[in-house]
Amino acid sequence: MESLIQDLQQYFPQLKAEQYNTPDYFKQAMSLALQNYALSSEKTAQEFLVKPEQVQEWATGKSIPDNLSRPYILMWVAEALKKESPQH
Q1: How far is CA 56 from CA 2, 35, 88, in A?
Q2: Shortest CA distance to 63 belongs to which of 52, 47, 78, 75?
């Protein structure tokens, strides 16, 4: 998980790394990824077999995946951001 945390900190330095598996961290990371990095809610939804509206709900905190799912979703987000922004 340490490499995940390091990857996430590259993109979300304003978030506290030690809170990476909290619902609030997840909500903020998803919101930043969708707004600041133009991560596609459609592509994310397709990857996790949910509707794009569900991804938007993750970003607003209206709906948050369970504790076991969040790290896997964030790993995917970090990888997607790496592909989209090679300068990081």
Answers
A1: 27, 11, 25
A2: 52
